[in-house]
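#lab-general

N.A. 3:47 PM
ok so I finally got the sequence cleaned up, no stray characters, all 254 residues accounted for. can someone with queue access submit it? mine expired

B.Y. 3:52 PM
send it over

N.A. 3:53 PM
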Amino acid sequence: MYQHVPDKNEPLREKLKELAASFPRYGHPQLFDKVRASGMLVNHKRSERIYQQEGLSLRKKRKKKKGQGLREARPVPTNANEVWSMDFVHDQLVTGERIKCFTLIDQCTRECLALHVDHSIKGEDVANVLRRLKWQGRVPKVLLSDNGPEFISRAMSRWAQENEVKLFFIEPGKPTQNAFTESFNGKLRYECLDATCFLGLEHAKREIGNWQRIYNEERPHSSLGRVPPKEFARRLEEKKLNEMSRDQRLRVVV
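B.Y. 4:20 PM
back already:
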């Protein structure tokens, strides 16, 4: 009679996957050292075989510096503050000076959480914008972006670690993996940047900030049932509270 034989390698499989998620840049040698340091006595060849079977291998050659993102499927948000997306849009003043716009949106509610404008924006500036949002009570679980130098900076890594936020980086050359931000950036450019001649930096900040308010509070969004993002977020929160209340009533009846 056939009897199921337990997989003796299961603890090692789980340990390697756990370590690969915690240390995205570590190859097998470093992960193997971590496994041995945890107290598991395993053979190097067996560990490497399982490492290959689980698809945890890193590319040996990297054409471009990449962020330490998650080695897992891209998250799909169902509530506000689960997944935020960030990117940059470039434009110029009538004087010819370049300006840079840092865009940040909530993938679920499509709210534009930040539109920071300046001549130059570094990783520390991005982290400061995120700190201000935290003071307002908003922190994401996952932050999605490309591999731009501002997003893979030490300042961003430090902020993410301090706030227990997972950084998720799209693959180079595949902007569609950050489709929500690409769509938002297109609206920003068509409705604001290309339609306005900015006389100076302060004028640009004022006009872009006004557009952000209109986008969040007044502009109907086709993906949200033709309501503005702020209204959609309010309804989503209301629905969530009603479901919580219903669950509480059911517990009382039981």
